[in-house]
C-alpha cells in the first residue's frame, strides 16, 4: 500500500489537495491494516485521513528548499522508464 505514496514536495505545479488526500489515505490504510474500514470504524478512519492530510499540507507549506522545482511530467517519464526496465520480460 505505501508504495503508492509519492513525494509531494518541490514540484511545479505544487501538490493538489487531492494528491495530499490520496497520500494521507494510503498512509492511514497502511497503519490501520485495512483498505476499507468497517462501518463502526469509518468515522475514526475518516478523521485520521483528514488529520494526516492537514498535517501533510502544513508540512508542505513550511518546507523550504534551494533546489529548483521538479517537473511532474519529466519525473513521471523517468518512473515509467524504471518500471519498464524492472518489469521487462
Folded structure, characterized:
By secondary structure, this protein is mainly alpha-helical. It contains three helices and two strands, in the order βααβα. A two-stranded parallel sheet has the order 1-2.
Give the arrangement of secondary structure elements.
Blueprint (H helix, E strand, L loop, with lengths): L10 E2 L4 H16 L9 H21 L7 E2 H16 L2
Helix pairs in contact: 1-2
In short:
By secondary structure, the chain is mainly α. The chain has 3 helices and 2 strands; from the N terminus they run E-H-H-E-H.
Brief descriptors of the model:
89 residues; mainly alpha; two-stranded parallel ribbon; 3 helices; 60% helix; flat
- In whole angstroms, the N-to-C terminal distance is 24 Å
- Overall geometry comes to flat
Strand arrangement across the biggest beta sheet = 1-2
Largest sheet: 2 strands, parallel
Structural class: mainly alpha
What is the count of helical runs?
3
Low-confidence region ranges = none
Helix content: 55-70%
Cα-based radius of gyration, to the nearest Å? 16 Å
Q: What's the total count of β strands?
A: 2
The ordered H/E elements are EHHEH
